[in-house]
Amino acid sequence: xxxxxxxxxxDLYSEEYLxxxxxxxxxxxxxxxxxGGFSSSTLESIQLILxxxxxxxxxxKKTDISKDWFNVRTEGRAGREIDIFADSMFGDIWKxxxxxxxxxxxxxxxxxxxxxxxxxxxxxxxxxxxxxxxxELIISKLAKLHAAYWKVEELDKFNWLLKSEDYxxxxxxxxxxxxxKIAKPPEKIEGWMNEGWEFALDNLPxxxxxxxxxxxxxxxxxxDEIPFTLIHGDTKLANIAVFDNFKISIFDxxxxxxxxxxxxxxxxxxxxxxxxxxxxEALTEFYRKELELHLGKKIEEKxxxxxxxxxxxxxxxxxxxxxxxxxxxxREGAKQEWDWWVKRLNKII
Length: 349
Known about the structure:
By secondary structure, the protein is α+β, with helices and mostly antiparallel strands. It is built from 14 helices and 10 strands. The strands form 3 sheets. The protein has a 6-stranded mixed beta sheet.
């Protein structure tokens, strides 16, 4: 079922409007909700009291897109999280993933999204590998999403979808000062990124530094012939909920875009490095098999090589600062992560 659109953000926690979704509604309580994360959004816990005196928990996410640093760094293509609700083109997403979304609203620069509280189905916040069975389910579902939108030209008409250059620029080593005058990242995140990239640029080979600091269009122009698809863009485990019946939900679509499928894969491998059930190489091979299964055809070796290279470059731009930050601060496993990514970038350049 497509989420209901309300006119005002206040409607998302109003008994008058929520009763249209929950007809047994008796009252509504609004409480703080702390999730951490990198974004500038705020979360609130919405607790519904039903006529039976039972309770139902929801989460309300609110974002001022004019002050959200992710949005500003991608030059204002705003409200992607609610844009995917508005067009039937994106309906296949919810045939693959369980949709937790119930309602949304937009007022001026502010958007609000009301969704199920998935807390009981989230992964624990710990640096331990998840089960191989669960990881295969996640990877298979991502491959199914990518296959569903594989080379769908209609995606081109949605100019709010992020493009390849957006992903490279968003958290890469480029100069963001112009955008940060409008909306800066949270102080802690900004400090980590700056420290990580400073260390990386001081310690990477010169050829790698030159590659990273060149105009981004010099990199992405070589990807024009690579198959594109719809990607989620932020495939960290914190954005994924798993249910007992082999159903999963993937939420927080603020980074949704049109890009090579391996952007999702290598972001997953980079951001969840300490949680992987097996090697990056093994997961990459499993992903390819699942993608080919859902596509119903084999991917040519040259095409696959180009997809891998694009994914590695994207993962490097988006998250290598975390590997550098970890190495500088002597975190466990950081040297192995640094070496893995540097070795593969050097092969490409």
